[in-house]
Amino acid sequence: MLSERRLQVLRAIVQDYVGTEEPVGSKALTERHNLGVSPATVRNDMAALEDEGFIAQPHTSAGRIPTDKGYRLFVDKLAGVKPMTAPERRAIQNFLEGSVDLDDVVARTVRLLAQLTRQVAVVQYPSLTRSTVRHVELLSLAPARVMLVLITDTGRVEQRMVDCPAPFGESALADLRARLNSRVAGRRFADVPKLVEDLPDAFEPEDRGTVSTVLSTLLETLVEENEERLMIGGTANLTRFGHDFPFTIRPVLEALEEHVVLLKLLGEAKDPGVTVRIGHENAHEGLNSTSVVSVGYGSGGEAVAKLGVVGPTRMDYPGTMGAVRAVARYVGQILAES
Amino acid sequence: MLSERRLQVLRAIVQDYVGTEEPVGSKALTERHNLGVSPATVRNDMAALEDEGFIAQPHTSAGRIPTDKGYRLFVDKLAGVKPMTAPERRAIQNFLEGSVDLDDVVARTVRLLAQLTRQVAVVQYPSLTRSTVRHVELLSLAPARVMLVLITDTGRVEQRMVDCPAPFGESALADLRARLNSRVAGRRFADVPKLVEDLPDAFEPEDRGTVSTVLSTLLETLVEENEERLMIGGTANLTRFGHDFPFTIRPVLEALEEHVVLLKLLGEAKDPGVTVRIGHENAHEGLNSTSVVSVGYGSGGEAVAKLGVVGPTRMDYPGTMGAVRAVARYVGQILAES
DNA sequence: TGCTGGCACTCACGTGGGAAGAGTGCCAGG
DNA sequence: CCTGGCACTCTTCCCACGTGAGTGCCAGCA
Q1: Can you give the pTM of this predicted structure?
Q2: Is strand D in 7 Å reach of the CB of A66?
Q3: Other beta carbons less than 10 A from residue A243's beta carbon
Q4: CB pairs under 8 A between A and B
Q5: Which H helix or E strand runs over B119?
Q6: Nearest residue to nucleotide C3 when comparing alpha carbons to its C1'?
Q7: Residue B235 to residue A249, Cβ atoms within 8 A
Q8: Which tens digit of pLDDT belongs to each residue from B176-227?
Q9: Could you tell me where the DSSP H helices lie in chain B?
Q10: At what angle do helices B259-268 and B245-257 cross, to 10 degrees?
């Protein structure tokens, strides 16, 4: 096991490297942090840390930089979450409170998070799967054409066109609308399939096909996974990445465009608190030199979706984690109010 | 006026530079294009073209590169639009036909355009301002709370919460819904304000406040300019920009995040055909070293929105214009069908 | 056993001087 | 008005060298 001082050395290395973006040497370390020992001692500690794989040197005559494993230890054991200051919190609240609708909340959140962390912000929309149905509306656009509008408790609206197998009368439509809503309004998505199972039986035989079609469209809408949308912002911050641009930035930009990948990435984080995935811990190759800091958020106690930031592994973890957590908290509040 | 041959020289310079990304000299020109004259002659022509501001040299002992003015002349006079090949057209059609709803059409269009042109694709959603109302739905969520859902002929759905000044009965709501739809369904947005002007008069005095509130929310929704949303894709292609990265790419990424700027940019293009804005012709500073190729698209004969690509001024204009035009055409078809 | 100072060693990095090569401008001749 | 020739200008590449930061190791000391 590593001694207390060696952990301190690691912490100091991470902090300095995050600040200066340059490999940090033993001499600089003793000057900037009062470790109470000489550079030579620190060198021994660094050699030990390197043996254990927590730090590495880019080339022989350079200082050390933390490895993914080093950052992991730093995040888990050596650093806490740096809370936002009161003025910062007020600013977050003010900024989010001007929102007019869900899309606007998300858009503002992305911008805020990107500004706050100076990194790429990623916000997943409230997932449908844990939401409840507020209302289902059916509109007849043509004799055999119905528009299905689903309104969720998060204020989200989804619409689908349904081509009916047979013409469907206004009265039957009104009937279906009424029955449907009395059964599913206020219920969770997951419960809907069972609740509407026997609904076609209540209708005239010639309408059953249409009713089934409408219902299956509704169920599709509910489960459709790619309905989890993402909003991304602050990509310009990627330019602060490193100096060897094209090859660093390109795979990241590509990964960011693959929303499916990001959604999966966010979905994997099961921790109720802030989750940090460092470098190679991210399954996607393009993100192997980035870290993802994410957290769930939601209107109630429950997290309905995730938000987070993507940045270089060399990032200010305590600060970023604090910002992400704070933003998630206030977004949750805003959503609960509306 | 420039002689025919000088124009040919300019065309050759643009083509070569776009291909090689390197300043092109007189000797290389005569080798790759059979202009029928010697390098010395070409040099004289180049000197003339430089005097006129169509080309420039990065430094004394280098070849020439086209200026914005040079590209402008090239686009206007020297090059046409390169049509897509039949297989390409089929691929476009196939790819777009799998779409399930409007959002999906837009998402696919962005990806397609980015892949096709290997540049950044920008697609504006069908603008509300020229659309017509298909249906307005009013839902009572609480005694003094109404949800307004607007459905447009482009299949777009907008929802708004309305807090009523006074409780509003179900029957009054149904009445309002019926009257509202009979007046505005099928009408253009621009005409709606006049059509609903006197609507409150038809209601009981105690309901008029609520009716007015609902109507003004509707009007707000109709005119709200920022409801023109954008989808952007292919930002990874920016890495192919140049070799001097950070400073080239950063302002572009920043500009791309300012949707307002992009919307304005797209909106400015009045030409019914493909519009090209080159370098400094773009009002926004960040886009001064990029060109924007855009075109309107829409379900009917009329263009309801714009799409386009953003790329380096050194781009394959004929090819890009062809791709943009083709995609716009097929997107229009898809929208017309649905 | 652990810390310290000293010392030799290793590289990356910046600098400076050529040499090479591409491209130009100009001029005189056809 | 076009052409070949020629001198000139720069950038770019390469190599060699000195510099300095940082290391590893060792012997001495608490």
Answers
A1: 0.77
A2: no
A3: 8
A4: 78
A5: none
A6: A41
A7: no
A8: 999 998 998 878 777 888 888 888 898 888 889 899 999 988 888 876 644 5
A9: 4-20, 26-32, 39-51, 68-73, 86-97, 102-117, 170-184, 192-196, 205-223, 245-257, 259-268, 317-337
A10: 80
